[in-house]
Design goal:
The chain is 23% helix and 34% strand. The protein is an alpha+beta fold and 83 residues long. The strands form 2 sheets. A 3-stranded antiparallel beta sheet has the order 3-4-5, with no helix packed on it. Strands 1-2 form a two-stranded antiparallel ribbon.
Length: 83
């Protein structure tokens, strides 16, 4: 579970599991053979692939916090050593 504070209201967001992500067939975008974006649980757009640097998520968080440029909210990022 991931907890976020939004306008002083507490909400609990159940993040998708690796199994949820791997089972998704709703492909939103394919950038290359190694990277794609899938919809998971009707709420999340998850970018998956072999060459996505963790710094990309940190950059998105920075832009969201320090500018008025609209960017998708990053709830989590990780590298799964099993896949």
């Amino acid at each position: 579970m991931f907890t976020e504070m939004d306008n002083k209201l507490h909400s609990i967001i159940e993040l998708p599991t690796i199994a949820d992500i791997e089972a998704s067939t709703d492909v939103l975008s394919i950038r290359t053979n190694a990277i794609k974006v899938v919809r998971v649980k009707e709420r999340f757009a998850v970018k998956i692939g072999y060459s996505i640097p963790p710094l990309e998520a940190e950059n998105m968080k920075f832009v969201a916090a320090n500018s008025k440029v609209p960017v998708p909210k990053v709830h989590a990022n990780f590298i799964d050593p099993e896949t």
